[in-house]
Specification:
By secondary structure, the chain is mainly alpha-helical. A hairpin with a 2-residue loop joins β1 (51-56) and β2 (59-63). The longest helix is centred in the first third of the chain and has 17 residues, at 29-45. The chain has helices at residues 2-11, 16-22, 29-45, 66-70, 74-81, 83-93, 95-111, 124-133, and strands at 51-56, 59-63.
Amino acid sequence: MAQSIEMWAQEAPMSDAQREDLLDGRVTEADAMAAFERYRSCLRAAGYEPFGIKRDGPFINFSIPAAAVESGVDGPCYASEYAAVDTIWQSVENADVGDERTQLAECVSQLGLDFVASSGAATMDEIRAAIQEAGYSVDDCA
């Protein structure tokens, strides 16, 4: 895996800072947080501000203004500063946490709760709390 991360770092279009985050073949929490801040700074430089920023275990949940996407600013900022680090941080370094989020979202759906867990807007603790407030337990899911 480390070798494929290093190849990605050498071949994908990205900032030197993001490339440096990948060159050792892994992504740390410090790398992920620094990459997010660079992405955020890129958006800010274009006049857009991410909002609803919440830490959820090792992850950062956030939203961006639709105008940042419509203007074409978000895509290049994300690709340049955060995409590779974010992908590896979530799918490689913390795959088990992502699996837990998916399980909680499926639980919410199975229980028929009117709560959007899969959008990323809610933290895993908020999802668990909503399940409990509705009188259920995660164990109630098949």
